[in-house]
Amino acid sequence: MDAIAMTKGIIIVGYGTRTGNLTEIIEKQAARMRARGIGNVYTAYFRVSSPTIQEAVSRAVADGCNDILAIPYYIAEGRLTFEMIPAKLGLDTGSSRGTALVDGKEVRIRMASAFGSSRALTDILIDRIADNGGDMDTGILVLGHGSRDLTSSNEEIMILNAKRLRAIGYRHVAHSFNEFVGPTIAEALKTLAAEGVSRIIAVPLFIANGVHLGEEIPEQLGIPAYSEGGDIEIGGRKIQLVYTKPVEADPRLTDIIVAKAREFLGE
Hints:
The chain has about 270 residues and is of the alpha/beta class. The protein has 8 helices and 10 strands. The strands form 2 sheets. Strands 2-1-3-5-4 form a 5-stranded mixed beta sheet, with helices on both faces. Strands 7-6-8-10-9 form a 5-stranded mixed beta sheet, sandwiched between helices. The chain is elongated, with a radius of gyration of 20 Å.
């Protein structure tokens, strides 16, 4: 295959959703890449939303691509990025690169990494805090999804970002998860309240809005669904809670995926 001229294509892969703004985010990032002069950029979703991963690969191949980079628009690595997305791309289980037969054509396919430990995620959290009037004495709650997947780095990334915030000088930082692992949101709120804070900024380290951020987490925080916060009571004390947006299509994430694309393109 090395002797054949390679036409490269890029697929941004999101998880998929029935609600929320994930497709808008993925499409916005694809449009930004095209605006930077990167050609053959496609979008795909692991589940629910369309186009599917297989549909996006077929479209890229129909357009003449025979060398494809899939960029997962995910916070953390895990079974999805290690096994399930590669399988849908036609790669062997556990493989991040290889060749696949797509509509009768041999295609080289490789997977990029998730955002993971990127400092950009920390910087986005800091900006969310600053934009909502936070200072070093404000209670900060870093929110993660949580996972049963033992290969997932989701828990590690939440701990890392909380640690970075403390290292910068934020005095009251806790992290928690929506489900599957602890500490729970209730436990983290009690920890911050016990430190005497009168105001908490909850910053979700999630990609997009949806049921988790709009309904499940607000219920655990004690604020109205699809709201930006409100007053909550913990241990008989009233505390103001501010609930920020997720990372969404932040331009720093654009820079990360553009850098992955340019490296793949040899630019």
